[in-house]
Amino acid sequence: MTGLILAPARLPLPGVPAELLRRDPALARAGLLLLALMVPTAIALAVDPRTLNGVAIWVKPLKFEASIGVYLLTLAWFMGELPEAVRRGRVAGALRAVAIGAASFEMVYIAAQAARGLASHYNVGDPFHAAMYGLMGVGAVALTAVSPALAVLLARHRPAHLAPAYLTSIVLGLTLTFVLGAGSGAVLSAGNGHWIGGIRSDAGGLPVLGWSRTGGDLRSAHFLGMHALHALPVVGYAAGRLLAPRAGLAAVLAAALAYSSATIAAFVLALRGVPLIGG
Question: Residue 266 — left, alpha, or beta (φ > 0 → left; ψ -120 to 50 → alpha)?
Answer without folding.
Answer: alpha
